[in-house]
Write a structure and sequence with these properties.
Distance between the termini: 65 Å
Helix content: 40-55%
Largest sheet: 4 strands, antiparallel
Number of helices: 8
Number of strands: 4
Strand content: 5-15%
Radius of gyration: 30 Å
Structural class: alpha+beta
Shape: elongated
Length: about 280
């Protein structure tokens, strides 16, 4: 049997940051199914779809639903706590927060594994499995969502996982070789603050204010028409000074001059020539 390692996230819960109580599932049929592992009834796994009159009584559907709800709530939570976080780091943080080892820790703190209904011959082994412990937590989330919708689930999950998100953020930040943030800049779990404001973007230095959009469109039109373009630079070396060269280019399509341009880079010069070429082709942009 493969047991996952313990969680690497260990937020501190105390009077200032209490561990939220487990919300009640009021409907007995949902509550019973939430804690029913598939081993309890021993139904075959290869069935494509249950009979309408005999649906599967185990918690796998709730677990599947709960996994999706968890992903949604934690993703939204990270967006609120760290609105400037890029998708890559955010995905790593979410994976730590909703990983099986973290969910199993939370599940044990709520004593959910003890409430599982399992096949007697497998009960000890299954109850000790980190995967099963995480699964029953997801199943509880799914059952609660089914009964009370997102409004009944989201406040609890946000209060529960905000401290884990803070710990995961610090860990992933270290993985990216970034210095730790001062405590005053870390997001308080009981509030929604933004990440430290980034430096305002600096414009890239350019010898020309134009973009290269004309060049891309020009090349696209020529490729569609299967025509041959040639770019001919004056002397091949450019003009101006060594530090600020001015490139001059002539654009020929199937041997016919379509445009001329100049710019601080070869690409900028081609863009100016492409602009003339588009006009010659009757395309105004």
């Amino acid at each position: 049997m493969s047991i996952n390692p313990p969680s690497i996230l260990h937020p501190v819960f105390n009077a200032a940051q209490p561990f939220p109580p487990l919300p009640d599932i009021n409907k007995e049929s949902i509550r019973t199914q939430v804690f029913t592992h598939r081993s309890y009834y021993g139904r075959p796994n290869h069935v494509f779809e249950d009979h309408p009159q005999d649906p599967s009584p185990d918690n796998e559907k709730y677990e599947h639903l709960g996994d999706t709800v968890l992903g949604l709530v934690v993703t939204k939570l990270l967006l609120e706590m760290y609105p400037n976080l890029r998708v890559g780091p955010s995905t790593k943080i979410r994976a730590l927060v909703v990983g099986n080892s973290t969910l199993a820790d939370v599940s044990r703190m709520y004593d959910l594994p003890a409430r599982l209904r399992l096949h007697p011959a497998q009960a000890i082994t299954l109850r000790a499995s980190v995967n099963i412990q995480a699964d029953v937590f997801e199943s509880y989330v799914g059952g609660l969502y089914l009964e009370q919708d997102l409004a009944g689930v989201q406040p609890w999950l946000k209060a529960l996982f905000a401290p884990y998100a803070t710990e995961a953020y610090k860990r992933v930040r270290e993985q990216h070789r970034l210095p730790p943030l001062p405590p005053t800049l870390l997001v308080a779990p009981n509030s929604v603050l933004s990440s430290p404001p980034p430096s305002p973007p600096q414009p890239r230095p350019s010898a020309t204010p134009t973009t290269i959009g004309h060049l891309a469109l020009f090349n696209q039109q020529l490729q569609k028409a299967n025509r041959i373009v040639e770019w001919i630079y004056a002397d091949g070396t450019g003009e101006g000074t060594k530090t600020t060269p001015i490139w001059i280019v002539r654009c020929e399509v199937d041997g016919e001059v379509y445009g001329r341009g100049q710019g601080g880079t070869k690409k900028a010069a081609r863009n100016e020539a492409a602009k003339e070429g588009l006009k010659k082709m009757g395309i105004e942009v």
